[in-house]
Structures
1.
Amino acid sequence: MHEQKGVLGFLESREKFPFAKQGIVPDIVINPHAFPSRQTPGQLLEAALGKGIACVGSLRNATPFSHSSVEAITDQLHRAGFSSWGKERVYNRRTGEMVCSLIFMGPTFYQRLHHMSEDKVKFRNTGPVHPLTRQPVADRKRFGGIKFGEMERDCLIAHGASANLYERLFTLSDSSQIHICSKCKNVANVILRPVSGGRKIPGPYCRICESADDIVVASVPYGAKLLSQELFSMGINLKFETELC
């Protein structure tokens, strides 16, 4: 047995399928690119071996402990009346014309996996987020977010979908705001700052400049804000250049 899987991309009636000169109609037409991509050429050898022994009615040992050579398999198919690799002519069911290319057909074992597309549908606009990073949680059962990695990001950049990229990675992810002092480039804190009259009101305040006059609000991902806070706890201070848009 060889590990191989696929997704049914199209269902067609038996009356429209191509057929061999013996009248055999295949059950499944598989994309040949599936074998080198999943590195399962052994399934082709198994199908060729099964085709040869089915034609002559013999028995062969197909366990992993046997060593059936490729030459023996091709020679058996050739003696059964096929080409060396078991390819044969098939005919178009709709027109009755012979297909120009030689097609390989052979018996192989397949079983249906219980993976239905309706069970895998997943969507989300907003929902629960992680308490530390404030990014969407994982897992479909918890109504989590859909993975969007670097390769997906590169695809959107290549297509010029900058607004969609901004929405995916910022608006619907971990958008937040940070207060920055445009004078000293440091992060300002939201505290109870003193005002005239001896009162204190909550608001952004730069402890370095001891002023609240040059504070600007910048929209940044919360992950970047969390990184700056963790670096600050290690004694590394980040300064931010701001520019009014």
2.
Amino acid sequence: MSKANNTIKSWAEEDRPREKLLNKGVRALSNAELIAILLRTGTAKANAIEVARSLLKTANDDLNLLAQFDINKLKSINGLGFAKAVTIKAALELGNRRQLQTSLQIPRFTSSNEVYIFFKSIIGDSTQEESWFITLDNANQLKGYYPLSKGGKTATIIDIKLILKQAIIDEASAIILAHNHPSGNTKPSEQDKQITDKLKKAAEIMQMKLLDHFIITQTDYFSFADNGLI
């Protein structure tokens, strides 16, 4: 019988995920081993690492795709019940929040990639289209970040009045708008271009600048400013 068919407790101590983490550090573990620690146990036919590998295979070994799985999708994997599915979902969300917290520590935004990382941690994994915006001072220091709306898989509503009202409250000098495309396509629609133009003109009336509008996906982004559309 191969080791894969044995319980993890029967393995040599240095091969067990928990002991391996303690002895060699967390970076020595594979994704499957890390997930196995979260799962704690497997099934009668598969140990925790095998269940973890099955889960990763369903997500094409892509943690970004895995983060999009809802509880029901996770539960569809043999060996994952409600409690384990919730544990995995919570762990993935902690990763997002860590990334967001790191972004909030940036003194000011100096590149479109920094803005992308910030928004990706908020809406990159969402399976619905969401719109958010941030307000900044004249040094591009973040003053606040706010949700606008959550729509379906292909559309969301952007309220220009709400954006400007909050920007005035924040005494902001600039605004950056962002929304995600769950489809993974970063190409802006005509509606995206129109709302960008309207917000830019409205902000100018209030003596503010629309610095950029981002389309966010899990792995890429489109910047209106970088592409000369603002």
3.
Amino acid sequence: MELAAQQEPRKKRGRRRHTEPSAYYLERREAILDVAAALFREKGFGGASIEDVASELDMSKATVYYYIPSKAVLLAMIADRAMTRALEKMAKIREIPDPVTRLKELIRHQVYTIAAEPWLFNVFFDQKQYLDEKYRERLRSKERRYLKVFIEAVKACVDTGALPPRVDPRYGAHAIVGMTSWLYKWYQPERDDVDQFLEACLALVEKR
């Protein structure tokens, strides 16, 4: 007697679940990041707490944890946001064929990005030492990608004679990024002219 072939029961097709967070969720999370960055800048990572963040936003501590699982993750998200801001438009700038124009656009991008949110980069530069190692390595990877674009631009300027041959591309890139990054320490929009600072930076790489 032949055994009847057994068929697997058909799975009912349900509606696909939406995995993308809602606009409201993202807006609330961004608000938490903004407030946390301001508090970390003011009190330091060790001095600010989730309770402080919740209090500033008139939220419960549990609500903050709904959006951000821990204080360590909160710092990591703020640091990642800074690098994401910095990496924006880099691919497009990288395609500029003229080396001097490319380097100038990189400097312009760096200056305006930091000047737009100096508080964010204050946390990035001064508080990232408190990141857990797993987050720190991800951040270092993005930093290396960012610096590489500057190194390539400086090297292209040296190769074409726009910069002196004695300029080492790696050191030159570090010098430019370091000079423009320091903006977060002293820049005050109501007092300082970011355009004049940019012009001073650009003058240093102009062909003589």
